[in-house]
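Lab notebook, bench 4. Still working through the backlog of constructs that have no structural model yet. Next entry is a single chain of 126 residues. Request: give me the structure tokens for it.
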Amino acid sequence: MTAALKMARSAYARPEAPARTLRGIEYDLLARTTHQLKESWTRRKEDFSGFATALNDNLRLWSALAADVAEPENGLPAPLRAQLFYLYEFTAEHSRKARQDQASVEVLVDINTAVMRGLRGEGGGS
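Model written out:
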């Protein structure tokens, strides 16, 4: 993840708390964001502001991931970095469509879930 996240993690970590991996933190962020996205989708007619916030939070997360994989010192393989950056671009475009009620968030949830499976080492094949 980003240097800022690493600094925040070390600055706010309690010494008695178990160490968390960056993959674990990324997983938790994706899980929380995905849950908010799904929940807000069901209430979007009554609470559009909450839905827009969930979409924006998801996009901010993907923007941070894209910035991270764009760094030359990122250790992921180049093809995976390119795929993740493409997913950011897709997420940005699809979020715009969902905000305009031209698409659902289902594919965004599916993307996040697939990445979470990868972070857990479950692979992407089914």
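Notes after review: The chain has five helices and no strands. Residues 10 and 19 are 10 Å apart (CA to CA). Flag for follow-up if needed.
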